[in-house]
Amino acid sequence: MNGYLVFAFVFWIGAWGLNEWLVRLRAKDPTTRRAIGIAVPLIFGVTLLVIWECMVRGFEIPSILLPAPSMIWARILTSTHILWADFQQTFLKSVITGYVAGCGLGFIVAILIDRSPFLQKGLLPIGNFVSALPVVGIAPIMVMWFGFDWQSKVAVVVIMTFFPMLVNTVQGLASASHMERDLMHTYAASWWQTLVRLRLPAAWPFIFNALKINSTLALIGAIVAEFFGTPIVGMGFRISTEVGRSNVDMVWAEIAVAALAGSVFYGLVALAERRVTFWHPSVRGGRS
Question: Which Gene3D superfamilies match (predicted)?
């Protein structure tokens, strides 16, 4: 049997046993529990990379089909300036700008809809319809309207993030019970006071759910939109170009950077959620 495959099997068994031992530990120290919580997924991720590397080498898979992680890492080290320029164009300009604009606009419109039953009955069905439109159909239109630079990608991200925020915020504002609203009415609270002190805090879990969903949708939308027109920079542009050149290692390097950026972005939103909604049972129940 190929030595790479044997090593992959042995490594997998060892990592599995180590993770089983770690998750069964009953550590009393919060720092130790936190370290275990970080170590378990880290070991799992390293195991996947080792198996990937050994499978590619053991079965002699051509790099044009699936490059080894070591090959992808080498490409990242030699192409940092290109990857950084693509990251700036796609993530810092298109994703962040579109995410803030789309989520902010969706939140504001949700507040307005909450005040107007007419808008609630008329706009929400349209929102559900537009949110189902495929990004590959929206992106070419936005490129024609706003040009080939990052502004058209921002428009795509705004469309993709606006309606999830709108729908979740409207549902969140309606989640406060009638008894709680009656209590605020008994205290002679105005609509604004009821919104700030009761309904908006009750809606925070719904709002953060939309923010987490949009953190991934924004990156996907920006990358896909770059396939339909962009300057000679950007993650989507690089992926589509390097695939045509059969530079698959560069494609995977861009995918790795996008995955890392998206994971960090999602993690920051989730961390903010824990800080803001510390009172919610889903957060309190997840604490050690």
Answer: MetI-like
